[in-house]
Amino acid sequence: MESILPAVPPLRESSRRWVHDALEMLAQEAARSADTHLLKLNFPGFDGIDFYFKDESTHPSGSLKHRLARSLYLYALCNGRLREGQAVVDASSGSTAISEAWFARLLGLSFTAVMPACTAPRKIRDVQALGGRCDLVGDPAQVHARAAEHAARGACHLDQFGLAERATDWRGNNNIAESILQQMAREPQPVPAWIVCGAGTGGTSATIGRYLRYRRLDTRLCVAEPGGCGFAEGWRTRNHAAVARHPTLIEGIGRPRVEPGFLFDVVDQVIEVPDSASIAAAWLLEDLLGRRYGGSSGTNLVACLQLAAAMHARGERGSIVSLLCDPGVRYAETLFDPAWLADHHIELVPAREALQRCLASGRWQPLRD
Ligand SMILES: *Cc1c(COP(=O)(O)O)cnc(C)c1O
After folding, report:
1. The whole model's pTM is what?
2. In what residue span(s) does the Tryptophan synthase beta chain-like PALP domain sit (predicted)?
């Protein structure tokens, strides 16, 4: 028996202490953080239907990926995959890299985001400002392979796409679904008819869908998806090999393929939204709430209005809850720049007018791209 040696050397006492200290730092960070606001809106055309938007842009690292990054670090630490002084890597060109860099700085770790070279300069600057490094890869399809190379050299791969769905505690622990339902508790219609979210890693929809079942609620879950993208294509036929029919301009959602974290069975409906409508809705959110939010928040708003119009047509009352995922400042040079929109052949006026008519009338007219 003497000859059976553990494959991985056991943790030294000082390393174990570092893991305990790191977990304590994450717990302290969570205790310092307030919950995000649930903002209520009502529209003239939708009598009896209350809309709520959870403002995830107010997290310290600016988006709903703050929750995911905290969970991924916790998961890596509790699985014994992350040790003192170890480098950390993930493939992300967006809000996840910013949140992961934020937590790496908190824990005193060095973080590298593997990104396509075409990533918006603003996001590269945001990661670097937090002390993160950006490893830019010419071919976007190679980012996962490059992250794996970093991991082979000893880095801890946080692996947002592989682990988002299992890193989050779906039974509670103040996950986003539990937080929404607690904030709804004193509202006139406390159990939402619908919760609407997007699918990037699929972590948010998996957590909400599981939690709704766990709590035995009648609330249904809708994924708001850019037209023709991976979740929508796969969900219809439960096909995990499905691929997007075309790319989207909406960042954070609308994946080219079915990600490992996409749980089709907890999603009751998928609504596909043309990019022009998502962007027009992102602009509309500024009129409604006095602040700018990103494109995926617009996609959510369009899906909410479509569900509300169907409820309205059936004479139903109820509440609909959705998310504001990240702030519009990240898109000043893209979605909120008229020259960029013109370059990408996005005409906002027809979609904007259709949305305004919908708010006033409670009726939905299909939008074309
Ligand atoms: C990641 C992301 C989403 C989708 O959330 P997932 O939990 O990854 O599915 C939506 N909007 C933005 C801006 C995101 O960064």
Report:
1. 0.95
2. 35-326
